[in-house]
Every structure is written in structure tokens, then in C-alpha cells.
Amino acid sequence: MRHRHGPDNGSVRAAVTGAVTLALVTLLAVPPLLAQSPSASVPNLTGIWHRKGPLGGKRNMPAVPTNRGAGFEKAFDDAFSPTYDCLAAPVPGLMNDNYDFEIIQQTDRVILKYEKMDIVRTVWLEGHGHPKPAANDYVHQGHAVGRYENGRLVVVTTNFTFDPRGFSANQFIPGSTLKKMTERWWRDGDILKLDSVTEDPLSLKQPFLYGFEWTVRTEPLTTYDCDPADSRWGAQWHKSKYPADK
Asked: String of b and e for 174-195 (b: at least 16 CB within 10 Å)?
């Protein structure tokens, strides 16, 4: 009687070893951006971007302040503006000023470099062990954490310092340390698009919505080179116009 025999142990080991090797080769072949989130579709946002216009051609409405925010705006003296010390407005105000910017996508982070005041933002991508900020760790442009989701880059920014230009470069509605901004970036052909929502229970009656579009720019960014001494000339002009402000 002929007996059926299974594969010998050597054949089994060889098959398992080959499968593991193939899996490792496949994993290492994944592009760095995809390694951040294998299940996500990562958009190509890298490039230098030039202002085009509001998202979908729809005008962005101004922020609506609470009574507290409106009171601050009414009392605020322009001479106190940090703009005169070469400090750019924090996002989203930084975005609605007429300057271009660059996006650089890396494996564990996304860097946004702005012509305006040479500001650099870093978005720390989830899943790479980046430390969270301490409860009292506030920074001018906030602490930004991002993820790729359905072909978009989603960025949530918190831990902002107080700033009198919290939502627009043209309004003095203050942004408090409770401000939170959620951005969604994506690309449609050669057009970069942004849809964002900014909340602040101290300063805003309702979320501030801001959307914009940019086109590809071929020339490099320029350097802003703001000089605080020269910039403060605007504050001196203000004082000469209102001599009682001494």
C-alpha cells in the first residue's frame, strides 16, 4: 500500500522564509509619504503656491466676535500691534495676507514656509512618536498635528499664544489660548485648495470659515527681511497723529 507523504520540514521552512522576505521587500518599497499612513491616499502638495482667490470663488466672510471680542477690537490701539515688531499674524490671518508660500512634504512632517515675515510652520504627522506639547506650552503659530485622510491633509492646530490679530490680518479680534483651527488641504490639478474652520469660545460667536485657492508658482520664494526698527516707524506715526497717546 502506497502512503502519501506531506512536504518535508525543509520545504516548509523555505516557503515560510520566502514569504517573509517578499513581505519585507514589499514594505520597504513603499514610498516614504505612504509609509505615514498605508491606508490613506497621500496628495502631492509639495510646491510653491501663488494666491488665486477664495475657494470656489465664494467670498470669505469676516469673523463674528463675541461681546468680549468686540470690546477688545474697539479698545485696541494700532500702535500695540505686533506687526510693528515684524511678527506676522498667526493662522488663519497669515493665510489671508497677500503673500505666497511653499509646502514641503516629508515622511514624518509637513513644512509650510511663508514669504510673509519668513514664517515657518511645522505640521507633525501622526504615527511617528512626536511628543505632545505640555499643557502650558503655547507658541505663536500654535502646535499643528496632521494626518492624511481621503486624499487630503488634515491639520489640527492648538496651543496658540494670545494675539490681537487672531483670525484676520485686517481685524483686531483677539485669538485666545483656546483657539483651535482645523485645515483641510487638497489638490485639484494644478490648483491647491484649503478649507478651514477656526473656533475660539472666548472671542467668536461662531466658527470662522476660511477657504482659498492657489496656483503653482515657478520662481523661488523671496526673503521678507523685516527690520523691527523700520517697522516701528508706523507706531511713531500713530503717536504723532494722536499726541495724547504718551
From this structure: bbbeebbbebbbbbeeeebbbb
